[in-house]
Design brief:
The structure holds two protein chains of two kinds. By secondary structure, chain A is mainly beta. Chain A has one domain: 7 Propeller (Methylamine Dehydrogenase, Chain H). Helix content of chain A is 4%, strand content 44%. Chain A is built from two helices and 32 strands. The radius of gyration of chain A is 19 Å and the shape is globular. By secondary structure, chain B is of the alpha+beta class. Chain B has three domains: 132 residues; 58 residues, no CATH class; 157 residues, Jelly Rolls (Sandwich), CATH 2.60.120. Chain B is built from twelve helices and eleven strands. Chain B has a seven-stranded antiparallel sheet, with no helix packed on it. In chain B, helix 4 runs parallel beside helix 6, helix 5 runs antiparallel to helix 6 and helix 8 packs antiparallel against helix 9. Classes of the chains: A mainly beta, B alpha+beta.
Chain lengths: 388, 369
């Protein structure tokens, strides 16, 4: 009993022994692992699995299973959801479905652009075609939706990529575009709408930030935080925000991708601006907060470290870019993969930052890694890798 | 003899029973609708169906006939689970799947699934079936024989047999319905000095009457009902945004049927244009009007609004939007509203659309006159 208590205390003090990576950018969409066991520096490819189609969606990890989505076929009309064993990369199951919405995207992206999410019991896979499937962990189809079937003008001819989040029994799904733009809260058990809100009629590729029991929805207008169960507004920041990189919440603060980075202290109904640094300008990658610093990858592939306290820049580190995926962190390391498939391990505590290791995956990678069980999972258009 | 007959009857009864047993759960999947309607019942029914014997696969596939796309996906997922197990146990009912594939009254998507399963179970058999799919109602299934004909043409060319290559490519083009394969075949045939009429192959409507420029200031023109939406009087003159709006005749010279408002009216911004044409059908029939457009647009057929889309400059492609419709015998009037917005970037110059009339396979429906 004592031992168990000791373990529990250790976990609480230093992070959990093993945590799932349940959505785009992992726990609370922070991109920072909460696990005690960290991947470290000396990573090698433990296994790789072939994928039959393209994907910008990131893998997610639930227990000993890795889930990933792809789209294939001449018009990307076939949608795949895969479940692999984390231990050895063997396939547990695969489901192939067909798009009911539009499949047109910019050539750089594809229909499997949205990262799936999980509540630990179910996996919710959303695609750019607005097709949404809920499976249990064994691949049983629980429900499905065709959000463009439901709302015929909800699409973006450049493709959509907003990743869903799940919180308190509600799956929050965004389909924000120039025409029929909305966010909806769906019942995780049935897929039926609990609520649905109109959103700004403007293309938007950002994903929600999960922060203090709210879901913060970013758009060109700003950030609207809602209660996941009801869709009711908790607070609203209306000074504009990016439509590509997504904001991040840490502690009592939201670091909004708005005029560079703007640190916000939202309270009930009010949002106070703590600081703003317009030079902290993320390119495509979303920022992350690690320790007492915020890290931003700009459009030139430069990693910028700045103070959480006031936004002052500490150093800049030129990395091998360009980047479409976002950085993630575990322990004292930042991990990121560039578009050419060069996986980079960064020591952010080195005086000017330092790239400690590079692994050439030799394929185009446009996505964000997942961290779980002391390993990192990365995918390309044809492979899923486990690095350990 | 008697015993055999009894056995056969018993087997048939069991088989029928299996089919009957699945009718209710299949119906539950077919009953799903918009906004998650029927999901709860479908989830339970799906669990029942995936436990069924592989022999039921054709019945489950048949459930896709006449089903909505959501129900098709429920059934497709169930077929996938049953088939995975059947393939492992080598119990896939290949003969029954071939029969299902050959019956072109079955849902094209279901027949694609059947073909894929046959391919997984018996690649050689799938290869043998491939040439029979060249005129198939499913454009997906046509891709296989078209690919083979492209390869056959290439092989003939390598052997310097130009005539055989022309025959193979020509046959391939006749069956091809997907743009990527059509482009490849047109290029190869033209390299061999063969004429290819792409507008006719696709069924683009090339000749229109066009009128502009009405105002689209603040993008309000999209919802403004201008005179062409009330009456098509080709000799009328209306007040336009920057000049009088008059109807002009326009015939596209573009191989992909682009109807470019900038050509007759100049590069205007924040404007609305209309294009109208008459399409003569030989019969009453279902059809699809397929449009590609990167501006805001609306399409009416015989005065009925088929669809409206207010997205600007996010890209255009062939068959970007497929609008199912019903043609009547004789004259059908198609009206397109095309709205240009206020953006000034170089990539926002286009004020155009392309439109074709075809069947659900993508086969051009050619006008009677």
């Amino acid at each position: 009993m004592k031992t168990i208590s000791m373990c529990l205390m250790m976990c609480l003090a230093t992070g959990v022994v093993r945590a799932d990576w349940l959505q785009f950018r992992g726990p609370n969409a922070t991109a920072v692992s909460t696990e005690a066991k960290v991947p470290g520096d000396d990573l090698k490819v433990a296994w790789s699995a072939d994928l039959p189609g393209r994907g910008l969606s990131a893998p997610i990890v639930v227990g000993d299973r890795v889930f990933v989505t792809c789209s294939s076929g001449p018009g990307q009309e076939t949608l795949h959801v895969f479940c692999f064993n984390a231990a050895d990369g063997t396939k547990r199951w695969e489901r192939a479905m067909r798009t009911t919405g539009r499949t047109m995207t910019h050539n750089k992206t594809c229909v499997a652009a949205n990262t799936p999410c999980s509540d630990g019991e179910r996996v919710f896979a959303l695609f750019s075609s607005n097709d949404l499937f809920a499976f249990d962990l064994d691949g049983n189809l629980l429900w499905l939706r065709g959000l463009t079937f439901d709302y015929p003008n909800a699409s973006n001819s450049l493709g959509m990529s907003q990743s869903p989040v799940v919180m308190d029994g509600t799956l929050v799904v965004q389909s924000e575009n120039d025409s029929e733009s909305f966010v909806a809260g769906l019942d995780v058990a049935t897929g039926r709408n609990k609520w649905k809100l109109e959103r700004p009629k403007a293309a938007n590729w950002t994903s929600a930030t999960v922060w203090k029991n709210t879901v913060a929805l970013q758009s060109s207008k700003g950030i609207l935080a809602v209660e996941p169960a009801t869709g009711k507004t908790v607070w609203d920041y209306s000074d504009g925000a990016s439509t590509i990189p997504s904001s991040v919440g840490a502690g009592e603060t939201i670091y909004a991708v708005s005029h560079g980075i703007t640190a916000l202290a939202p309270e009930k109904g009010a949002v106070t601006q703590l600081w703003r640094n317009e030079k902290l300008n993320p390119g495509t990658a979303s920022p992350l907060v690690l320790g007492d610093s915020i890290y931003v990858v700009n459009g030139a592939g430069v990693l910028i470290k700045a103070s959480l306290k006031n936004g002052d820049e500490a150093w800049k580190l030129r990395m091998k870019g360009p980047f479409s995926g976002s950085p993630v962190a575990a322990g004292k390391r930042i991990y990121i993969v560039n578009e050419r498939g060069i996986f980079q391990v960064i020591d952010p505590e080195a005086p000017e930052g330092k790239v400690l290791k590079e692994i050439e995956l030799k394929e185009t990678v446009l996505t964000t890694p997942a961290v779980s069980g002391g390993a990192i999972y990365v995918r390309s258009d044809s492979k899923l890798w486990k690095l350990q | 003899m008697k015993l055999s007959l009894v056995c056969l009857l018993a087997l048939a009864a069991v088989s029928l029973q299996a089919a009957e047993d699945l009718s209710k759960p299949i119906e539950a999947l077919r009953a799903v609708g918009k906004e998650g309607q029927g999901n709860e019942a479908a989830g339970k029914a799906w669990q029942e169906i995936v436990k069924a014997d592989p022999a039921t696969l054709p019945e489950v596939l048949k459930g896709m006939n006449g089903a909505n796309p959501l129900a098709e996906n429920w059934l497709r997922a169930a077929v996938g689970v049953i088939a995975d197990e059947a393939l492992k146990a080598k119990k896939l009912p290949v003969e029954a799947l071939v029969a299902f594939l050959k019956d072109t009254h079955n849902n094209p998507g279901a027949r694609v699934v059947a073909f894929d399963l046959i391919h997984r179970a018996d690649e050689k058999l799938a290869e043998e079936l491939t040439p029979t799919l060249l005129e198939d109602p499913s454009s997906d299934l046509r891709r296989h024989p078209v690919a083979k004909l492209i390869a056959a043409g290439d092989a003939a060319l390598e052997k310097k047999d130009k005539d055989a290559a022309i025959v193979a490519y020509g046959k391939g083009l006749g069956g091809a319905r997907d743009e990527d394969q059509i482009k490849v075949l047109a290029k190869k045939l033209r390299a061999l000095d063969q004429k290819v009429d792409l507008p006719k192959h696709f069924g683009f409507l090339m000749s229109w009457k066009m009128i502009a420029p009405f105002s689209n200031a603040d993008r309000a023109g999209f919802d403004t009902v201008y005179p062409p939406e009330k009456e098509l009087k080709y000799d009328a003159v209306y007040e336009g945004k920057t000049k009088e709006a008059k109807w002009v005749d326009f015939t596209s010279a573009d191989e992909y049927g682009k109807i470019d408002f900038n050509k007759p009216f100049g590069m205007e911004k924040s404007v609305v244009g209309y294009a109208a044409t008459d399409f003569f059908s030989t019969e009453d029939r279902p059809a699809e009007i397929r449009i590609g457009c990167k501006d805001g647009w609306k399409v009416w057929l015989n005065g009925e609004l088929l669809f409206a889309r207010d997205e600007y400059h996010r890209g255009a492609k062939l068959d970007q939007y497929k609008l199912p419709c019903q043609l009547k015998k004789g004259k059908n009037t198609i009206l397109v509203k095309c709205c240009q917005n206020e953006q000034t970037e170089q990539w926002t110059v286009e004020w155009e659309f392309q439109l074709r009339v075809c069947d659900a396979t993508g086969t051009a429906i050619l006008a009677a006159k």
